[in-house]
Amino acid sequence: MSTHSRCSLSMTICCGSSMRPFDVEGDRRLMATHGMEVVVCKNAGGSGAQAKLGAARALGLPVIMIDRPVLPARLEAYAAEDVLRWLDHGADRGV
């Protein structure tokens, strides 16, 4: 049998509005000014979040990184003819 703890969460959402290029000191100042206690960000790949992660590390803040969703299997077409063939798959369009 498992037991569940009740959790109360209050949050203030802060969206940074600094200009590129982002730097650790600017993000650290933003986080400190707003009293941030945790950083939640998406894993977009690349180097765009390095300053944010460095600032969080400098302030000792935990980071929750949201990963990209797995894309479902889908049909891919690489030529216009393939797209037209798929669109004309025999469905009654009522026209």
SSE blueprint and pairings:
Blueprint: H1 24-33, E1 39-42, H2 50-59, E2 63-66, H3 80-87
Parallel strand pairs: 1-2
Helix pairs in contact: 1-2
Give a summary of the structure in a few sentences.
The chain is an alpha+beta fold and 95 residues long. It has three helices and two strands, in the order αβαβα. It is elongated.
Write out key terms for the chains shown:
95 residues, alpha+beta, two-stranded parallel sheet, 3 helices, 29% helix
Q: What this model shows, in words?
A:
This protein is an alpha+beta fold and 95 residues long. The protein has a domain at 13-69. The chain is 29% helix and 8% strand. The chain contains 3 helices and 2 strands. It has helices at residues 24-33, 50-59, 80-87, and strands at 39-42, 63-66. α1 (24-33) packs across α2 (50-59). The longest helix has 10 residues, at 24-33.
Biggest β-sheet strands, sense, barrel: 2 strands, parallel
| Beta strands, count | 2
Tell me what portion of residues adopts beta-strand conformation.
5-15%
What is the terminal separation in angstroms? 60 Å
Q: Low-confidence segments, ≥5 residues, pLDDT <50?
A: 1-5
Q: SSE order, as H and E?
A: HEHEH
Query: Which oligomeric form is depicted?
Result: single chain
